[in-house]
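Q: What residues go here?
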């Protein structure tokens, strides 16, 4: 498994329902924190590039995405967010 570093893409396993971010949504790691415990500051954007969630998640809440499919990169629903 790859190490989570800034700008890595992760998949949120349980999403962040209170912000309309569904399970499986993709997020970009902005920062990795090690104190007082390991956590990742992430950002989820909608298809228009608007931030719909920026916050901290724990390692158990996400998995690193090693390779995106062409659908996810070339105009597919990358964020999978149901946001206005």
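A:
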């Amino acid at each position: 498994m790859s190490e989570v570093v800034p700008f890595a893409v992760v998949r949120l396993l349980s999403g962040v329902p209170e912000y309309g971010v569904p399970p499986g949504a993709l997020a970009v790691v902005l920062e990795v924190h090690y104190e007082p415990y390991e956590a990742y500051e992430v950002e989820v954007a909608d298809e228009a590039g608007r931030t719909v969630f920026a916050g901290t998640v724990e390692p158990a809440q996400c998995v690193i995405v090693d390779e995106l499919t062409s659908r996810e990169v070339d105009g597919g629903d990358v964020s999978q967010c149901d946001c206005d």
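A: Context that may help when evaluating the design: The domain at 9-69 is CATH 2.30.30 (SH3 type barrels.). The longest helix spans residues 70-73.
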